[in-house]
Design goal:
By secondary structure, the chain is an alpha/beta fold. Helix content is 27%, strand content 30%. It contains 4 helices and 9 strands. It is globular, with a radius of gyration of 15 Å.
Length: 172
């Protein structure tokens, strides 16, 4: 896993992530891909297409499952959760764009268990920026990044589907 603090080739990171996921799913017959809105859902769409798992693609929004929901309220851009396959006994690759505190991952796992009991959940993240508050680790990571105190990572998707990953300054 490369470590970087400035320039990213998000497409190269995606290809590395794809290779890791492809190798792990070799021979798995009940695999599914579920992305966390919004960046994780974008990545999951491409992973599902590249792995031939479009029929086993889902997306989730964790807004109502966040442990800070009462404090922050509802995000104005809530998306519906869409899981159109049987979660029971499935091997699910849960996809997020940036892994940070682990709280989004925890919420996403709670959503998945509302739909059934998977046999296994593996976590894929394009970038891991550290700063964990919960014991969560990704199985597949494109890059591990060290950021400054007031910096964050932002994934963007161009109209042609190409990804870009940039460091942004937090103004909070």
């Amino acid at each position: 896993m490369p470590t970087s603090t400035k320039d990213f080739d998000a497409e190269a990171l995606y290809q590395a992530l794809l290779g890791q996921v492809r190798a792990a799913l070799a021979g798995v017959t009940d695999a599914a891909i579920v992305g966390i809105h919004s960046g994780g859902a974008w990545l999951a769409e491409r992973l599902a297409a590249d792995l031939g798992l479009q029929a086993r693609l889902g997306s989730i929004d964790v807004s109502f499952y966040r442990d800070d929901y009462a404090k922050k309220g509802l995000h104005p851009d809530v998306k519906p959760t869409q899981i159109g396959f049987n979660v029971d006994r499935a091997t699910i690759v849960l996809v997020d764009d940036v892994l940070y505190t682990g709280r989004t991952t925890r919420a996403a796992i709670n959503v998945l268990f509302d739909y059934g009991r998977p046999s296994r959940i593996m976590l894929a993240a394009l970038a891991d920026r550290g700063g964990r508050e919960l014991p969560v680790a990704a199985d597949f990571v494109g890059v591990t990044v060290t950021l400054g105190e007031h910096e964050s990572l932002a994934l963007a998707r161009a109209p042609d589907g190409q990804f870009s990953l940039t460091i942004e300054k937090d103004h909070a």
